[in-house]
Amino acid sequence: MSYRPIVLPFLLAVGLSVGVHAQEKTIRYFHPVFSPTVSVGATGQRAISRALVVGAGSYQNAEIGALPFARRDAEAFAAFLKTPAGGSVTWENLFLLTNKDATLANVANALDAITAESRQGDKIIVFVSAVAQVRERSDPALLFYDSPPAPTGAGFIALSRITSLLGEAATRKGARVFVAIELTPTFSDIKTLERWNAAESRYGLFLEKMAAVPTEIADSLRTTRSFGNTLMRGLLGLADTDQDEKLYVPELLSYLNTPSKKQDWAGRCAYLAFSNPNDWLCKAASGYSREKLAAQVERAQTPILQLEVQPLDGFMAGLGDPVAQRLYEDFILTIRLGHLLTPPERCAATLLDSLLQMESLAPVRKQLQRRMAVAYQDESQQAINAYLQTSSHEMARRRKDHEHYKLYPRYLQITADLLGENHFMRPMLEVKRLYFEALAMRLDAEHESDDSSALPVALQRLEQAVEIEPDAAFLYNEMGVIKALMGQYPEAEQYFLLALERSPTWSLPQANLSVVFKEQKRFPEAREASISAIALNPSNPDGYVKLGLVFQGMNVLDSAAIQYRRALRINPEYTDAHYNLACVQARNGQPAAALESLRAAIKYGFNQPLHIMEDEDLKPLHGIAAFADLMAGAFPDFRR
Q1: Which of the two ends of the chain, N or C, has the fewest CB atoms closer than 10 A to its terminal CB?
Q2: Domain hosting residue 58, numbered range
Q3: Helix, strand, or coil here: 403?
Q4: Is 623 helix (H, G, I), strand (E, B) or coil?
Q5: Is residue 532 assigned to a domain?
């Protein structure tokens, strides 16, 4: 009898230990991924399903194209996740991002949130439909709403980064992962599809890559049937070939690889990842239920289900704190207005500090910080896009006031601080921060023509960035620009070639290459480079301006004028075209026309009076009273 108090606790301890291990095994192997089953892990925490659903159906830059099915498929998948069959995922644990909301920063924020907060036994579900650049021997790049069209290296998320992030959540945290990503390749990449198919294990996940090679490329990329639609039909029960009402990974893969099903999503790539290659995915519908569900998915317009409010908005609305609600509304308003750091007394950063100090908002402090981080990243990405696409608006803005470029390094540094050391996008944030620091230094040197001491320092910043991201074409392009400003044209040429090697379809380094050739009097090569830039992006006036400069350097002034006028037909407000046309007209003995072109250049942003006065091409205008009046009216404070 005296031993019983000792033995009984020992037996109870053994029993509890066995129970915990059995419970963890149940979480991992015997509950469907898509199920509302709630389990309690060894930590005592309830397991949670978290999901990210992305449908990038439209893009800010029309050159990328549009996916008419992407938003529909994302909303249908989100609707599925909200049902008991899909796991009854709650709104606060579901990120649904479509079209304009599917920005690079929003997607990165959601990925970080669902992985950072996952625990043992939790489920992570990711569905993405987007355009991608799928190149041979390279990591596919997923493009989102605010990505630039050319693969500059400045606006995408590499597929491997997503997989490694989710794989870490599976291996280190014991989360169960299901990933389905539909990649619609650009036309130039579609030839790589035949080499896409493969199965492998990486990052702690079982990966399946599938491609449906099209018979007619043009037609297949415009169909409304998609991989997402086929996947949904499989999950709803059509892939349950043995009719046991249980759908496993091998059954789903077999269904998706059926030749007749592949024809439904021809011309696209699919990427699936699972924690376990034999995982039980869901309870499959059968009989009448399956037919009814399949018929619903077959409809051309799947019923739209969107988040009426974002999780953070919902929390604030239900808080019942009018002071916090008003402060939060001001916070969102300042973000939308772009008042992130200024004015200091009423900007988003100041309002965020006030929100973080409120005890009632303690549960959502991390979400508030992420919302601020997204705003900083969105603003920075827009600046990169405008700059790299050489939009006339941005060129004019740069001439009037380039000081705003100095804000972006601060934005990105604060973003990195808010997101923490381990955020999966931190290396790219550092790359962009260094890029903007270098860009601001270079623009300072251009505006202060007598001081180029900052250029070597700017080059050092870019070299640091290249060490982190050696395939980023936009870094090499900027290094080439700096070398050209330093008069080191052979080195500049090499950097532009490195940019083109990494981004063969990007017109900007090609146009910059023509300038380098022109400065070295290599006119045939300069002309060819300009023509190539125009061919890559015929809707961008910059290529025509560069070709005009080549003809101007060759003293073929009539041909130069034709190119400048072509640029102005594309964009009547393009400052460079107006200014260069004025130079050609002045040299051609057309002073009245030259004055009109110069007046237009000043109207649309050219604000460098010293350059105008020292430009040899415009010297024929100096003795004309109308020229003096124009300069006095446009630059009243200018004194030589």
Answers
A1: N
A2: 46-298
A3: helix
A4: coil
A5: no
Distance separating alpha carbons of residues 70 and 361, to the nearest angstrom? 35
Same domain membership, residue 317 and residue 266? no
Q: What is the sign, positive or negative, of the torsion defined by CA atoms of 310, 316, 322, 323?
A: negative
Question: What CATH number did the domain enclosing 232 receive?
Answer: 3.40.50.1460
123 and 245 co-located in one domain: yes
* Residue range 302-353, pLDDT digits in tens: 443 333 335 677 777 778 888 888 888 889 888 887 889 988 888 999 999 9
Note the pTM of the prediction, 2 decimals: 0.77
Does some domain include residue 22? no
Q: What is the rounded CA–CA span in Å between residue 490 and residue 30?
A: 64
Q: Answer yes or no: do 67 and 110 share one domain.
A: yes
Residues of the chain with confidence (pLDDT) below 50: 1-29, 42, 217-222, 224, 288, 300-309
Instruction: Clarify whether residues 118 and 254 are in a common domain.
Output: yes
Cα(346)–Cα(422) distance, integer angstroms: 31
Cα 564 to its chain centre, rounded Å, is: 33
Helix (H, G, I), strand (E, B) or coil at 222: coil
Could you read off the pLDDT of 310-322 as tens digits, one per residue? 567 777 777 888 8
| 550 closest CA partner among 579, 570, 520 | 520
Same domain, 290 and 351: no
Domain boundary among 342, 375, 408: 375
**Residue 117: which of 425, 456, 364 has the closest Cα?**
364
Per the CB < 8 A criterion, the answer to whether 90 and 108 are in contact is no
Which phi-psi region, left, alpha or beta, contains residue 243 (left: φ > 0; alpha: ψ -120 to 50)? left
Per-residue confidence (pLDDT) for residue 27, from 0 to 100: 36
Q: Give domain status of residue 492, yes or no.
A: no
Peptide bond into 509 cis (omega under 30): no
CA distance 311 to 314: 5
Q: What is the pLDDT of residue 25?
A: 35
Three-class DSSP category at 548: helix
Question: Do 202 and 322 belong to one domain?
Answer: no
The DSSP 8-state label assigned to residue 449 in this structure reads T
Measure the CA angle with vertex 559, ends 557 and 564; round to 5°: 90
Coil, strand or helix: which one is 637? coil
Of 324, 341, 375, which one is at a domain's C-terminal end?
375
Asked if 549 and 580 touch (Cβ cutoff 8 Å), the reply is: yes
Domain identity same for 62 and 110: yes
